[in-house]
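Exercise 7 asks you to align residues with tokens for two separate proteins.
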Amino acid sequence: MDILYIIIVLAVIFVSMTLHELAHGLVANSLGDRTAYDFGRLTLNPIKHIDPYMTILLPMIIIITNMTTGASVPIFGGAKPVPFNPSNIKYGEIGVALVAISGPLVNFLLAFVAYAILVVSKAEAGSLLNSVLTAFTMVNLGFFAFNIIPIPPLDGSRVLYALAPDFVRSIFDTIERYGVLLIFAIVMVGGSLMVTYMNFIIVNILKGFSIVFGG
């Protein structure tokens, strides 16, 4: 088992999920809600954002599965959600949707920047730089594809919630109570379907990146 690879991927996950959650907090703060600030979550300290199951256990299961079986499951995970009070957010549900989408957009931007550096630097395959940049690209695309799934408590559900009729919102409110348990259930029961969806999203984004950089 490649220990260096595991260390690189976990380090990338910690950085990526920290920036993801920080984005939620900063956008919420800019829209009038100071809850994240009051709870000490407007910080780059990853320890404040770690969820033992979503940040460590789930990614490790995926990493080990890929390394031992040769599978190509996208690496994804999450963090302890940054708290915010929707009633304090400007622009109602639209503002809440902006808070939600900010996290995945940061992951998309990190992937884009890492890919750009990878292309410009022409980092040699197998080098440490290549491994780090590739990990940054793939992990953040995995985070992006996973978090935009419109199922509570994922960020995509908040965007859909802002546009949905009341009866759909009531369903989402009920589902969201189960939180992390629901995510693990989705992974276990609908894992193959979710992997197919995520790979479709990731592959097509990479094609777009390749076009942008003349690949």
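Second protein for Exercise 7:
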Amino acid sequence: PETLLESELFGYVRGAFTDAKKDKPGKLKLASGGTLLLDEIGDMPLSLQPKVLRAIEYKEYEPLGSTRVEKADVRIIAATNRDLERMVREGKFREDLFWRLNVFKIELPPLRERREDIPLLVEHFIDKLNRKTQKGIKGISEEAMKILLDYHWPGNIRELQNAIEHAFVLCKDRLIRPQHLPGYLVEKGEALGGSLRDIEEKLIRKALDEAGGNLTRASRILGIHRTTLWRKLRKMGLR
């Protein structure tokens, strides 16, 4: 909601709304003397944009529910995946705010054009999730990484992050493997030069070899239940 966004950015005073029991500083005040990232600036409501422009140009703002002017000397970095120039032409983004933000512009290519960043990003996300959950996953298997490298990532870094978070939840092993990744990543057979069934069969055969043919040990390696493995083997004609 717009009021929530405004209160997060500018803070609020006691009585500004029902649950405002005491004054609370916003991100602008907390970042005073430093840098504040405004992520997805293109999603900011038009009605809030003049207040942001005032904070950037005059380094002043008013907390929600107050007429008292506060000062904040903050360097603003804004990020977006929207075409702001087109939004300005369509009247969906203020032109003056656009030019005030567009002092130094960095265009980041889509993830599909910088696949060399994917292993580094995956390592970062795994490390971040390990610190958050204490799960202790060591990394990602070569097969799973190839799937990530071969995918076209229309959702860019956020989609990659979501895929790793999905895998993290499913992974009961020390390594993230293909079966832990969202199914849509491999369903078209974009990785390992084959279909999802080919990939799955290759992984199952490898796990069985490592387990000496023992289904219980193989299912643990794959991170699936023994009954699930048995059903897959029957479906593949391997049992």
